[in-house]
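Let's sit down with a protein and look at its sequence and fold side by side. Go ahead whenever you are ready, and we will take it from there.
>
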Amino acid sequence: MSLSALAGLSLLVLGESHLTITGSLIDTLHDDLTAQGAIVHSIGACGASAQDWMVKKPLDCGADRVGKGKPVIRGRDATTTPIGELIAAEKPDVVVVIIGDTMASYDKSAFPKTWAWQTVTALTKAIAATRTRCVWVGPPWGTPGGKYQKNDTRVKIMSGFLASNVSPCDYVDSLTFSKPGEWKTTDGQHFTVAGYKAWATAITQALANTPAVKETAKK
């Protein structure tokens, strides 16, 4: 599987807490993409849903990493930045959105489909309005239970919902990368370093084969 399409591309990677913990995607995915020659800016925002990237919102924690620099892990000084401002400042070739677990409402009896549709489409429209290509990476399997009450049924619902609603972004289905429970977690939702390494490798390969990346690389 060729990864050469990533070489020279500028990527803005936005995500939830999977990009805020030492050893998480802020390290593993960022390193993998950089190793393929991409120019990467990764931003993690703890607990942020898609709509939180439409405004500046205070967060309990976050992380930021630019290029070959080290991650800056933030506490209560962390905020989101409106997507339009980020794209105007960064001018990325492709925006990569890694949001799913924060919107799945694992602890609720019903999936909030209307709210999810409103917030997801608001973000994709805002990205599309800048004429920037985008890829949305869906949630992976976790371990049922734990602090966040993650469960296989709801993660399948969340993934299927995103697959049908993130257009014009391409969709990457993380559920295809592993079997349920294959990647060990620390709390049901967040992985050990080994899990994050496996997820990062799979994301990198999938990104290289998305239309957003392949068509941008041809220009």
